[in-house]
């Protein structure tokens, strides 16, 4: 969460905001690994738009409230689209890395016949990748 007073910003909807942020962080972290500041901003904006949509829904959804609801729904849709594009890009990058490493392993298995030497080379590559 970004540094701000959630009680002042969301009032009774603070638990909803926190739940959306927590669930989104867990879901995105599962797909991309560590979250960047960009990811956290996207999550915050999605949660903010979601809570704004909930807050604008009142018993009377006419006039100004209906206009607010449409505006917040459009904003939520925009931020969700950005979040989905980021998730897809991260998954694509991860898939590309996995394919590359699988090819490297195949080449090493074909080239190095000695199991001990091959394991040592793979451990060396792993150390370099983890740095």
The largest sheet is: none
* N-C termini distance: 28 Å
> Spans with pLDDT under 50 lasting ≥5 residues?
none
Mean pLDDT, as a whole number? 80
Number of helices in the DSSP assignment: 5
Summarize the structure in words.
The protein is mainly α and 131 residues long. The protein has one domain. Helices cover 82% and strands 0% of the residues. Helix 2 runs antiparallel to helix 3 (37-56) and helix 3 packs antiparallel against helix 4 (64-111). It is elongated. It starts with 5 loop residues before the first helix and ends with a helix.
Please tag this protein with its features.
about 130 residues; mainly alpha; elongated
Task: Kindly summarize this structure in a few lines.
By secondary structure, this protein is mainly α. It contains 5 helices and no strands. The protein has one domain.
Please render the helix and strand layout as text.
Elements: H1 6-10, H2 14-32, H3 37-56, H4 64-111, H5 115-130
């Amino acid at each position: 969460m970004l540094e701000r007073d959630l009680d002042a910003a969301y009032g009774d909807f603070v638990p909803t905001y926190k739940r959306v942020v927590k669930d989104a962080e867990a879901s995105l972290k599962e797909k991309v690994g560590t979250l960047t500041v960009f990811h956290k901003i996207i999550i915050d904006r999605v949660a903010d738009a979601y809570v704004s949509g909930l807050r604008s829904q009142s018993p009377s959804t006419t006039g100004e409230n209906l206009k607010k609801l449409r505006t917040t729904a459009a904003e939520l849709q925009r931020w969700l689209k950005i979040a989905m594009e980021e998730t897809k890009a991260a998954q694509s990058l991860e898939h590309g890395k996995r394919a590359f490493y699988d090819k490297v392993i195949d080449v090493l298995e074909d080239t190095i016949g000695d199991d001990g030497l091959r394991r040592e080379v793979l451990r060396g590559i792993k150390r370099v990748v983890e740095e």
